[in-house]
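[audit] Reproducing an earlier prediction to check determinism. Same input, same settings, fresh worker. If the tokens differ from the archived copy the diff job will pick it up downstream; this log only records the rerun itself.
[audit] input (82 residues):
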Amino acid sequence: MEYIDLRSDTVTQPTKEMRQAMYDAVLGDDVYRDDPTVNKLEKLAAEMVGKEAALFVVSGTMGNQVAIMSHTKMGDEIILSA
């Protein structure tokens, strides 16, 4: 049986085509919104879900933190399952 290992971002095995796409990508500083690849990805993601904007984060963990922080305020207590 073939399976997909989702334990961590660090166990991924990019294909030759993925590596080539990374090599060919036009680079910019995402902090200053100067990265055309990230800008295009965020625009596409927002359009796909019918929102005015999207935010690229580098990992699922960071995405979870952003989601929690957007729904709570300093001093709130939350209970999460592992």
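[audit] rerun output stored. Observation attached for the diff report: Residues 13-71 form one domain.
[audit] end
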